[in-house]
Amino acid sequence: PWFNEDEPICWWSPEPRCVIYPQNYKPSKSLLRNMKKHGYAITVNHAFEQVIRSCSLPRSYADETWISEDIIQGYCEMFNAGY
Fold first, then answer.
1. pTM (2 decimals)?
2. By the 8 A CB rule, do 45 and 37 touch?
């Protein structure tokens, strides 16, 4: 977890940070075949709130998640503002 429930939300920007530039990314042929076979698609900035809410669900190995309702609301506000 990045913070505790009763503490202020901390915003992190680790250095170095992994950045993938879409214009420079070339998926492998096997990945493209697999995506086509199973009907997968790569999208960007699509269904933002649904994705973050899905990521906030508890996992089988942990009872809690750091993605609280406050985090969801904050990130959704930033997304809707164009960030």
1. 0.65
2. no
